[in-house]
Write a structure and sequence with these properties.
The chain is α/β, with parallel strands linked by helices. It contains 8 helices and 5 strands. InterPro entries: Depp_CoAkinase, P-loop_NTPase, Rossmann-like_a/b/a_fold.
Length: 243
């Protein structure tokens, strides 16, 4: 449940930084750096430990450690509480204290590694796919990319377009799911279609097997059109493609 957990540095990198810090602070210090595979680590099994350093917000964790130690027949640890430094430059969505969560927030929008040079990939147009659930920011990012010159393709709109009368999936969808999904004006009733497929994996697969290839074809057509117009970047975004 860490903020931006996917941006947490690998254990080897974090251990190396900690080792460098300890040696810089006091070269004669004896230490043992171990990975924590659970919330407690060796603190609830090592009989040689005497003290646990905690902060105000982690004191409850220290008390939980002592409870586990007692259950394991080990003496309680002395809990030494330290005050955490405040971060005078923290942003609106960052921690007030100096925190690795804030450092990860600041990584947003930066390159984690240089762009991969792959001769098999065309240099243009450069295609970026935006995915995510409702409210995840796809539209905002697509607008930002559009302002920077990208040609934006909305896969949700294409998903609607394949169903319209005369659309590439209209006849097959109607033939597969019956005339009862068609409104009086000839348009497909998406609510009626949704009632048939959602919760029914077999029916949903039948629908996506019809619709997804058509949407992919339309996306590729629009990418080709963007390339012909001289757009060097293309962004397309969608949530899900179904009914």
């Amino acid at each position: 449940d860490k903020v931006l957990a996917e941006l947490i540095e690998p254990y080897e990198v974090r251990a190396a930084k900690l080792r460098e810090f300890l040696e810089d602070v006091k070269p004669s210090l004896r230490y043992d750096i171990v990975p924590l595979a659970d919330p407690y680590g060796p603190s609830v099994t090592d009989p040689d430990l005497r003290c646990l350093v905690v902060s105000e917000e982690t004191r409850r964790g220290g008390e939980a450690v002592n409870k586990k130690r007692l259950e394991n027949g080990l003496p309680e640890l002395a809990l030494y509480e330290i005050l955490l430094m405040k971060d005078p430059n923290h942003g609106q969505n960052e921690e007030e204290k100096i925190s690795s969560s804030s450092l990860r927030q600041r990584l947003l929008g930066t390159l984690l590694r240089p762009p991969r040079q792959d001769p098999a990939l065309p240099s243009r147009p450069y295609v970026i796919g935006l995915t995510g659930g409702t409210g995840s920011g796809k539209t905002s990012i697509a607008k930002l990319l559009g302002h920077l010159g990208a040609f934006c393709i909305d896969a949700d709109k294409l998903g609607h377009a394949v169903y319209v009368p005369g659309g590439p999936a209209y006849e097959r969808v109607m033939a597969t799911f019956g005339a009862e999904i068609v409104n009086e004006d000839g348009t497909i009733n998406r609510r009626a279609l949704g009632a048939k497929v959602f919760g029914n994996q077999e029916q949903l697969k039948s629908l996506t097997d019809i619709v997804w290839p058509e949407i992919a074809r339309m996306v590729k057509e629009q990418i080709r059109e963007a390339d012909a117009q001289g757009n060097q970047g293309v962004s397309h975004h969608s949530t899900r493609v179904g009914a």
